[in-house]
Design a protein that fits this description.
single chain, about 170 residues, 3-stranded antiparallel sheet, 3 helices, 11 strands, disordered N terminus
């Protein structure tokens, strides 16, 4: 890591050892067929969910109500985690969008090639059995080892429908 003139640290990309995150790969459903890689220039918006600053208390009697601000301060994302993710994202040319500390969400945007390089994942388009086209990964998402415990989930890598109407 080196220090830029503006005082910010930059990451040496070749020094980042990536590890796979558990439960980040969903195989395509039966009847789906790959139709090709996502073009590297396609723009994506991905939401990253980060760990809580502290564990939530057990629910039950005696739990005290707190304001949204106090909740965010106690259980929202840690500022150091936010900064580490921003540094990682910026190193790969990804842009930080919305940051919601209470819900621990950071929105990242960039093109498919940048996301593929940053998260060591191949992005593929599939046609589902219903004929709908969706994007997904060909394997698990990878993150730098120092951020392995920081990321708890992602939304947007996989664009399959997650819920279906009843009836």
């Amino acid at each position: 890591m080196e220090l830029r003139q503006d005082g910010c640290r930059t990451l040496e990309l070749s020094a980042l050892q990536h590890v796979s995150l558990n439960d980040t790969y969903r195989p395509p459903p039966e009847g789906s067929a790959p139709i090709g890689d996502v073009p590297g220039t396609e723009q994506l918006v991905i939401t990253a969910y980060l760990r809580r600053r502290a564990s939530l208390p057990d629910s039950g009697l005696g739990v005290q109500r707190i304001s949204r601000e106090d909740f965010a301060a106690r259980y929202g994302m840690d500022e150091r985690d936010c900064e580490a993710v921003a540094q990682f994202a910026n190193a790969y040319g990804l842009t930080i969008g919305d940051v919601d500390r209470s819900s621990r969400r950071i929105t990242l945007s960039g093109n498919a090639q940048q996301f593929s390089q940053a998260f060591r994942v191949r992005l593929v388009r599939y046609r589902g059995s219903s004929g709908k086209i969706y994007r997904t990964t060909s394997g698990p998402i990878h993150v730098p080892a120092n951020l392995q415990d920081v990321f708890v989930g992602f939304a947007g890598f996989d664009t399959r429908e997650q819920a279906f109407p009843i009836g």
